[in-house]
## 1
Amino acid sequence: MLEVLKETEGDMLAVRVSGELTNEDFDLYRELIRDRMKRYGSARLYYEMVSLSWVKPGAALENGLFDVVHGREYGRVAMVGEKVWQEWAAKLISPFKKKGVQYYDLHEREQAMRWVQEGE
């Protein structure tokens, strides 16, 4: 499930993903991030993963390709999670983002949000 958080504004998209991620969730995410890139020339992203249990492999692959193609249009990206594989995923996609990806543990979510919003 993809939830758009209230901190979303301007060129910043803040989302929380949990449970199972479907093709529809990834489609919505790509639509929201693409809209910001089109309107502002780039997009900042806060991506929080909580109790994430399943990601459809085809949807994840399609999303990964989107990131490779559009990675240079991202500004600051924070991934917040609770599992070792999530930190590895952040490191794996970091080279494809213009400013890389900062990974934070779930208990550091406020710090991650500040970093995306203000660069601190």
## 2
Amino acid sequence: MSGFQCKQFYVGHDRCGMKVGTDSLLLGSWVDLAGVQRVLDVGTGSGILALMMAQRLADARASGFQVDGVEIEPDAAEQAMANFAASPWHHSLMVHKADIHQWQPPQLYDLVISNPPYFSAGQQLDCDKRQQARLQQSLSIGALLELAAGMVHSKAKIALVLPMEKADEVALGAASMGWFIAQQLAIQGRADKPAKRVLLLLQQGTGETEYRSLTIYDQNNQYSQSFKHLTKAFYLAF
């Protein structure tokens, strides 16, 4: 499949190691955008998360918003540029083809969002680009948190989607840098299965975590009402 059609935009992803998937669609639908005008998408890939942020901010009538994506892989960066240029919000979207470790942000952000790498070095995937897109040796969770913390102001947020088993690691790493998990949404494929993914929203300081869960499929193997409600701004079928 060469791309993914959302209600207000199309995402080509045939040149990207990671295709548009449920993880990003859930994260982009869920993250709290209250008070957000400047967003950074780290490892933007096809640009799906950045485009979702632009649509939501435009729908909320957030004037003057800016969404930037950083991507190291040249083909993915160029595809994100094309996707941004074809979108209704092209004036408010920008791709920076760069290594996030050396990149200097043009501004401080209200939100850093990412579907980051989470496979360990040594695991082999079926595509070199997919391998690069998902290797922790390129960008560890700890490095991502440290880099993001230097690109935001004191009231900003960081939003991530990760395997469930990474939640405790992120909580510990975040706490050592003065952050805490404000919201955590566990994602179950079905009600009788354990959660395999988790959405995290981090804020600076200390506080209690709000724990919730969401099931993607109901007992009839159809999308659950909760999933439809969360993602209805993007999925054509809802």
## 3
Amino acid sequence: MDFFEKSIIELQNQRPIFHSEDDLKLALAFNIKENNPEFEIRLERPVELEMINRNGKKTTVRAPIDIVVIDTNGNSYPIELKYKTRKANISLNDENYILAEHGAQDVGRYSFRKDIYRIENYKSKNLNYKYGYVLILTNDKAYFEKNVFEKDNIDKHFSFHNGALLNPFDLSWNYSKMDKTKFILNENNVWCNIKSQEHWTCKKENFYKLDLLKDYEITWIDFSIIEKTIFKYCLIKIE
């Protein structure tokens, strides 16, 4: 068990619920530093990453990595986090947690794969990379229970339900579900409506092609149960 896995287990007892993604990020960073005072911790460390759009166009983006841990040998461990919640109002130890309704699970599934891609990209550009992590913690059963691949949804290829295997090749959004009476594919391989407005899957960060270096097995693990609200997490280690 390494330092990050140890921190997650310790937080299960110390902090079974968080107010927000920033709250989770700070709690993890504090725990890592507390257990490893010799480590350096950076939050929201900006890095330049090369991204490729689905039409082949390359672009360099400046993006923050949620947590970067640096050990005494100068090795770096980048960590990306997601905290996706369903609406809930929970009291614990005289503290009230009002969780937001994030929804948009299709974008959430795509973003999970994008985080893995970004850590792999970081790995290829940093000689001092040791290994990295992508973590998602959620009380939204749609992520860990719903197999959207079987339902043939537009985000079917990004499903990471329990037991799924992420294909290393990005099979893109499921455009077979696109209403062809409203959208057409233009010469730039972009789906647009009759007013030349781009479909949301063809805009900005949703239009990246996210081929991975390998496949990843998905396992969801219980984190906590509070007032019948179940939190689970999925942890991907990128070595």
## 4
Amino acid sequence: MEPLEVLSRVSRLARHLDRARRLAFSEHQLEPWEFDVLTSLRRAGAPYQLSPGQLLTQTLVTSGTMTNRIDRLAKKGLVERLPDPSDRRGVLVRLTPEGRDRADQALAGLLEQERAILAQLSRTQRGELAALLRQLTAPFDNIPG
């Protein structure tokens, strides 16, 4: 029964985290997948742009799904497509100022939600838990999807 003692709690926590994420994103009119794409561009640093292929790698979706997502985000004014100066046939996807603001605000809301979840643990306990979870998830992070 030992695995259930741990993994059932991890599963329950995942459901609470999913709810917290959805709440944080919905307050900024974002879906979780939109946040993932926007924050991938944000992490790229100025000028906050990546090729669609780079976005595929970071978000782990198919090219058709990514095309659809870029179209929808562009329609909302959160990203824009630009010609790739290094490849005449290529495009770059760039975060617009509105997309950057929305991603930053949603991230702040998410961090607030997650801090509340972790508030009952001390800084030392949070560090220990992060190290244990890193150790537990490491084998999955190295498996090609």
